[in-house]
Amino acid sequence: MELKMKRNLFIAFEGIDGSGKSTQVKLLAEKLTEAGHRVYSTVEPTDSYIGTIIRDIFNHRIEADHRTIAGLFVADRLDHLLNKANGILKKLEDGFTVITDRYYFSSYAYHGAHMSLDWVIEANSLSAGLLRPDLNIFIDIAPETGMDRIKRGRSSLELFETIENQVKVRAKYFEAMGKLKGAEKIFITDGNRSPELIAADIWTEISKMGTSAL
Ligand code: ADP
Ligand code: TYD
User: Fold this and answer.
1) Strands 39-43 and 186-190
2) What letter does residue 17 receive in the DSSP assignment?
3) Which domain holds residue 148?
4) Percent of the chain beyond pLDDT 70?
5) Using the 8-state DSSP alphabet, how is residue 181 labeled?
6) Cα separation of 25 and 18, whole Å?
7) 149 pocket-lining for ligand 1 (C-beta < 6 Å)
8) Is 145 touching ligand 1 by the criterion CB < 6 Å?
9) Nearest ligand to the C-alpha atom of residue 70
10) Residue with CA at minimum distance from ligand 1 atom 12
């Protein structure tokens, strides 16, 4: 399909662990590049100093309370947006279409599963005020499928990677998406299918935006 878009986009991928986000980020980046976009793909937690602390907690190298982790993500996200060298706002200003593997809905879901969802939303309000995605793409898979996928080819599991937690996180995603449906553009796709079918669905949705952005 021929796609012409004048405007560069900001797209966030969301989903539980193993839902296929990074696979779809890659496929969408290829399609958008073919359509003439300069694409910058990025991920949260970031590889900044703050992101490194978060990864050390997930890998059980250091220990921290859930509330501390939620706060670290608030800071990591602000730096992800505002960093003068390679922040998302700078990349958008430079004309890139930015695709992020996780953004604030991840915080709503992962931290909302352990503390007040309203607090997490409020704590991320600076980021939401700075930049809302043109589209949040939620890849929905059964928690059991996600766990099976991440266990394959991995000897150890990270902090949030238990079936009980993934069930809670998926439920919180739906609660947060319901709560914010007035403010956010959200597309939910069935991730229990082949990567190609999921990518085709996502492309159809993006193409609709492309037309309206002309
Ligand atoms: P995430 O970034 O959400 O954790 P990945 O894209 O890394 O997910 O996918 C997790 C694992 O599942 C990888 O081994 C990947 O090859 C596989 N995978 C991704 N999408 C699908 C799919 N639609 N069907 C089956 N396996 C998939
Ligand atoms: P990562 O290894 O990138 O997992 P995945 O490939 O599934 O995205 O680690 C991301 C982990 O961080 C994942 O378990 C979700 C969690 N997370 C939060 O708890 N809060 C957040 O705000 C974000 C962005 C991620």
Assistant:
1) unpaired
2) T
3) 3-213
4) 95
5) T
6) 13
7) yes
8) no
9) 2
10) 149
Q: Is the CB of 154 under 6 A from ligand 1?
A: no
210 — pLDDT class (breaks 50, 70, 90): low
Q: Of ligand 1's atoms, which has the minimum distance to the CA of residue 25?
A: 6
Specify the amino acid at residue 149.
R
Give the ligand with the smallest distance to the CA of 161: 2
Q: CA angle 38-94-212, nearest 5°?
A: 65
Q: Per residue in 71-124, pLDDT tens?
A: 999 999 999 999 999 999 999 999 999 999 999 999 999 999 999 999 999 999
**CA 21 from centre of chain:** 8
Per the listing, tokens 């890849």 go with 139
Q: Tokens at residue 41, please?
A: 């793909």
CATH of residue 184's domain is 3.40.50.300
pTM over 0.90: yes
Q: How many folded domains does the chain comprise? A: 1
